[in-house]
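Exercise 3.2. Students should predict the tertiary structure of the chain below and write it as structure tokens, then compare their answer with the key that follows.

Predict this chain's 3D structure.
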Amino acid sequence: MDLLSLLLFVPACFALNMTPGPNNLLAMNNARCYGFRASMIGSLGRILAFSAMITLTASGLAVILYASETVFFAIKLFGALYLFWIAFQLWRSTSIPVTDSERHKPVKALFKQELALAAGNPKAILIFTAFLPQFVDTSASVNTQFFVLGVTFLGLEIAAIAIYAVFGIYLRQWFEQPKMARWFNRGCAFVLGLSGGNLLLMNRQS
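Answer key:
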């Protein structure tokens, strides 16, 4: 694909990858509780879910759904409410972003947790159906371009996961302080609330 388009895609994409959404907060907390390696392996569940979404977008199925006004509104509304709910839960929380569980949780369980959270996040569907196609040149091979964009997105997503996991490890003591954890939760809640508001204002041309 065109090199300039790819160079424009990378920073915009990485900004999306680094957004402090539920999956990134989960990766951070998993690293804090179970270590860097467990968090990274568990996050492969997210990569699997995103890979499936990108494949649907490339095949045109997601684009067809995205073109429907009714379906678009339903996804947008559900996605916004989902983000508002997460923000509400974080704002009320007095502890870590994601509820801590047993210290020796199997990696397979972390994988399933990441997979379920990513697959149930409608904002991800909107990103893949609205964001990726903007960088595709329809005069060239669409499938090849989606493959390049998809692989690039997933690579940047893994980099973002690693960054959040490192934060989780080095901020363990910070998280254990109730006051600091509460302010962190409320900061994340504010960001997610803004994301939900932006999603409500979003139209199919944005």
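Discussion points: The chain is about 80% helix and 0% strand. Residues 142-170 form the longest helix (29 residues).
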